[in-house]
Amino acid sequence: MDLIILTQYVLSGLVIGVIYALMAVSITFVHGMMKVVNWSMGEYYMMGGYIQYLLITMLIGPSLWFLGIPIAFAIIFVLGVVIQRYMLHPMFVGESERMDEYATIVTITLMILFRNLAIIFGGPYQYSVPDYFPPTDLGPLPISGNRFMALIGTALILGILYYVMKKTWPGRALLGMSQNRIGIQTAGINVRRLDEIAFGIGVGLAAAAGALLAPVFLVWAESGSVPTMKGFEIVVIGGLGSIPGSIIAALLLGLIESLGSVFISSEYRDLFGFVFLILILIFRPNGLFGDRERLA
Amino acid sequence: MSILQVNNLAKHFGGLVAVKDLTLSIKPGEIRGLIGPNGCGKTTTMNMLAGLYKPTRGDVRYHGKSIVKLPPHIRTAQGIMRTFQIPKLFSEMTVEENMMVPALATSTEKTPEFIEALENKATEKLTFCKLDHVSHLLAKQLSGGQRMLLQIARGLMVEGLELFLMDEPFAGINQVIKETIMDAIMEMNDNQGITFLIVSHEMSSVRRLCQTVCVMHEGSLIAEGSMTEVANDPLVIEAYLGGQNAASDS
After folding, report:
1. GO molecular function, one example (chain B) (predicted)?
2. Are residues A187 and B52, on separate chains, in Cβ contact within 8 Å?
3. Minimal Cα–Cα distance from B242 to chain A, Å?
């Protein structure tokens, strides 16, 4: 195979991987901070897409599409804070013995609620958001402008997240909470407030992904399903709770899907990722970067 | 007035009664020991005092005011600090960051002068706890004893610290660090008037540090007094040795 063509497929895989990364990071962020799995993450992604669609078609117009991403983040951040405060917080009150089950029931209920609300208000239609950018070239790879912008946007958002978490004191407090919830409480920090911020940031990231990818994968009530499935796949491959693990796993999944489509068949694109996931579960059950649990 | 007054405190986990009707009073400036056989409810009591567990019933009064409904971070802000047998540190952060994060994350002031003052305070407390030479290391790289010292040093960063709750501060620690911790406790008590409630199985350390010792057994307080007094109390002897059962077994 021509080296140029192979490079194109590798680059294409990496681009897809970076796009997947944002959703995976949002899932692993919430889990890392609060130790709960948020099954409704795809619905925040879906809402981000709807917000972007409404903003572009009714308020800011296609030329200011980039403003929709922070706006979608902000709106869903506030929604996330409210949901955490009134629906998820009760599981941290007292000595809840079944926190995981509680979170599962609440977040699956929210998933059903938000999907049905989207159908009630948006109807059973798929909405198309105008292109963000004309087709362009990424080195030897001709790429759609929307994917190119998604690549740039994802890199930028992940960069901002990295800066906030590593370089600011509230970010370090969030990292502290992910490393030791009891330690952060007894050191004098309001863990309830941190939970709200962490959940808000997590679902805000999913909404930002939805807004960023709105022109790539149409906007509709179930548009969050595939990104969520890919996101969970990546999170398990990278290791639950590991943000770098999620980013690397997303790149690997993008590459595997892209190269598998070329060398085997594009019909089995999703299958390649699941085979990789099964291999990881067999040989590294905690994922590539997951912590091994101490049993004794 | 007592700095800490515990009235009829009880904690049930389903059908298990971990603490029942515990009443005790600690005066300001005291170093109080809390001892008892494994499973007698010492750590559960500490968790209720720190706000990590909500009591099933009873009251905890700090400086005369009930704190039983306050969350842990508010109790810390009021001057109550708690350490754990297994240190609760931020393992992926440096020793210095472990010291700074709580103060800087909660403060709205982020001026260079404030941060510098905080850094100086952290250095001073780390030097006091003989950890200044490892301030650049990640917490997970420290030895067990150094981790315990770091918990204590982090506690000293709390503004207006008045009551230090320590859960097994000497467990599994070498003699040198044990001496360092004991010296630090006595110095904090003498110079800053900090009150201590220390849970420990290390009787020699408790004897050396504590004027008064409380003994718990099966969730209840069974004796209170000097170490010599409680060591000769028949109830305490029976709790530790199993009384006539122990004699008949041997």
Report:
1. ATP hydrolysis activity
2. no
3. 29
The DSSP annotation for chain A comes to --HHHHHHHHHHHHHHHHHHHHHHHHHHHHHHHHS---TTHHHHHHHHHHHHHHIIIIIS-GGGGGGHHHHHHHHHHHHHHHHIIIIIGGGGSS--S-HHHHHHHHHHHHHHHHHHHHHHHHTT--B-PPPSS--EEETTEEE-HHHHHHHHHHHHHHHHHHHHHHHSHHHHHHHHHHH-HHHHHHTT--HHHHHHHHHHHHHHHHHHHHHHTTTTS-B-TTTTHHHHHHHHHHHHHH-TT-HHHHHHHHHHHHHHHHHHHHHT-GGGHHHHHHHHHHHHHHH-TT-SSPPPPP--
Cβ contact A185–B93 (<8 Å): no
B109 falls in which pLDDT band (50, 70, 90)? Answer: confident
- Residue ranges of the domains in chain B? 4-89+160-249
Element (H, E) at B212: strand B212-217
Q: A89, A96, A179, A186: best mutation site toward chain B, by most B Cβ within 10 Å?
A: A186
Contacts of A236 (CB under 8 A, 6+ apart): A277, A280, A281, A287
Question: How near does any CA of chain A get to the CA of B205, in Å?
Answer: 25
Set of chain B residues whose Cβ sits within 8 Å of the Cβ of A176: 90, 93, 101-102, 105
DSSP structural state of residue B65:
E
> What is the residue whose two structure tokens read 């209840």?
B220
Note the residue count of chain A: 296
Q: B124-153: per-residue pLDDT in tens?
A: 999 989 899 999 999 999 998 899 999 999
**Structure-model confidence comparison of residues B173 and A230, the more confident one:** A230
The CATH number fitting domain B4-89+160-249, selected from 1.10.10.10, 3.40.50.620, 3.40.960.10, 3.40.50.300: 3.40.50.300
